[in-house]
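Hi support team,

I've been running sequence recovery on a batch of backbones for a student project. Most finish fine, but this one hangs at about 90% for roughly twenty minutes before it completes. I'm not sure whether the input is malformed or the queue is just slow. I've pasted the structure tokens below so you can try to reproduce it. Let me know if you need the job ID as well.

Thanks,
M.K.
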């Protein structure tokens, strides 16, 4: 992989190759020892991504879920934010496809490039060629909210009832945001704990495709912060954002 490739291509190609390695690992190891498979998956993808970025972008810092947080990133102009295996639980469950590899670049205060590989679905969504967002949702179609399958926010069901929406539980945050990008869902909402690596890459792609992405109070999502905790998020079509933020506020107040 040549170092002259642009950042968008680097993000896409590294996420895709890490995903291929994870599929091979899954195939070789099987699912009888899920805890071992999860550990191997995290380590394999992290080592590949970290070493590849060190070779291709040696001057850049890296923030990885599986790596040591080096404070030097806070002084860096360019930081790669990676989640080598997002949806580790789902990765170790046979026939599940809702796990992902995240590779994003933060540069001068903004997300500059990103890619989300969905290896078990055979695709990578990236800022090289963001998904096309239709001008309008099909009229009369019921809203679909995707949220965590294991720890959904308490207010989501009240929100869904208020909107007459269907709740679609999924694993990886990247898979959920990609579901919105691909029209499988209309809304992704989460509260209760995440980190920058959970959302940086999918949010980069979502922004490039024209989606709204913010905190659930409407505040901007900020990356490469001293504390990488980024506990809540809303991703949706831009015309839905004001209504959804108000609905989330109302539903949360009833908690």
């Amino acid at each position: 992989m040549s170092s002259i490739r642009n950042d968008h291509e680097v993000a896409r190609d590294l996420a895709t190759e890490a995903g291929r390695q994870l599929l091979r690992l899954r195939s070789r190891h099987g699912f009888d020892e899920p805890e071992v498979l999860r550990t191997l998956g995290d380590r394999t993808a992290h080592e590949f991504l970290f070493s590849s970025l060190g070779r291709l972008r040696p001057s850049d810092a890296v923030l990885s879920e599986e790596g040591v947080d080096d404070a030097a990133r806070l002084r860096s102009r360019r930081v790669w934010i990676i989640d080598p295996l997002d949806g580790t639980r789902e990765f170790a469950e046979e026939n599940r496809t809702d796990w992902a590899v995240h590779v994003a670049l933060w540069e001068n205060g903004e997300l500059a490039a990103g890619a989300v590989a969905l290896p078990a679905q055979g695709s990578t969504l990236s800022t090289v060629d963001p998904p096309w967002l239709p001008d309008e949702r099909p009229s009369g179609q019921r809203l679909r909210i995707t949220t965590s399958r294991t720890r959904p926010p308490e207010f989501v069901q009240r929100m869904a009832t208020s909107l007459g929406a269907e709740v679609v539980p999924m694993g990886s945050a990247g898979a959920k945001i990609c579901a919105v990008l691909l029209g499988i869902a209309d809304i992704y909402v989460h509260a209760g704990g995440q980190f920058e690596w959970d959302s940086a890459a999918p949010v980069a792609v979502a922004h490039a495709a024209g989606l709204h992405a913010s905190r659930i109070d409407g505040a901007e999502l900020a990356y490469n912060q001293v504390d990488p905790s980024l506990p809540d998020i809303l991703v949706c079509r831009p015309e839905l954002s004001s209504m959804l933020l108000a609905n989330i506020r109302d539903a949360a107040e009833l908690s």
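--
Follow-up from support: It reproduced on our side and the slowdown came from queue contention, not your input. The chain has two domains: 7-126, 144-253. No action needed from you.
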